[in-house]
Amino acid sequence: MNGLDPILHQPTRLTVLAFLSGCQEAEFSVVRDYCQVSDSVLSKTASGLETAGYLRARKGYVGKRPRTWLSATQQGRTLLAAHLAALQQMAAAAEAAGAAAGTGPAGTGPDGSGNAG
Q1: Least enclosed by CB within 10 Å: which of 17, 33, 70, 107?
Q2: What is the pTM of this model?
Q3: Element holding 40 (H helix, E strand)
Q4: φ/ψ of residue 49, rounded to 5
Q5: Given this model, what pLDDT does residue 1 score?
């Protein structure tokens, strides 16, 4: 699919991995709040990304309270970078194709007159 990663095509997975790529590790609740999803949605998303090797989940305790920390794996970071590069390449190609079509913004002609040519 044009170099796009099918796993990262889903917006929540992309957002989770992009967030984690900016830090060493983040507590589950911080990721959940940033992504604006429920615990169950993040849990399912993280589980799928972990199974695919894109992130790692670490469980532990703070005092007597259980906590989960999430981190992007090196593979996840590499695949995210490739996915974002493919998106940028696709956008640049589409922009160039639009410019080559010879119409300016809002349907104006190349000279801005409203004439197609």
Answers
A1: 107
A2: 0.82
A3: helix 39-51
A4: -70, -35
A5: 47
Confidence of residue 108 (pLDDT cuts 50, 70, 90): low
d(CA 112, CA 52): 50
Residues 19 and 70 sit within 8 Å (Cβ to Cβ): no
Mean pLDDT computed over 81-89: 96
* Residue 28 Cα to chain centre, angstroms: 18
Among candidates 75, 65, 60, which has minimal Cα distance to 21? 75
Contacts of 17 (CB under 8 A, 6+ apart): 8, 49, 54, 55, 72, 76, 80
Contact, 54 vs 77, CB < 8 A?
no
Tokens of 62: 């703070």
Both structure tokens of 70: 């999430």
45-74 pLDDT per residue, tens: 999 999 999 999 999 999 999 999 999 999
Can you tell me the distance from the alpha carbon of 90 to that of 3, in angstroms, rounded to the nearest whole number? 9
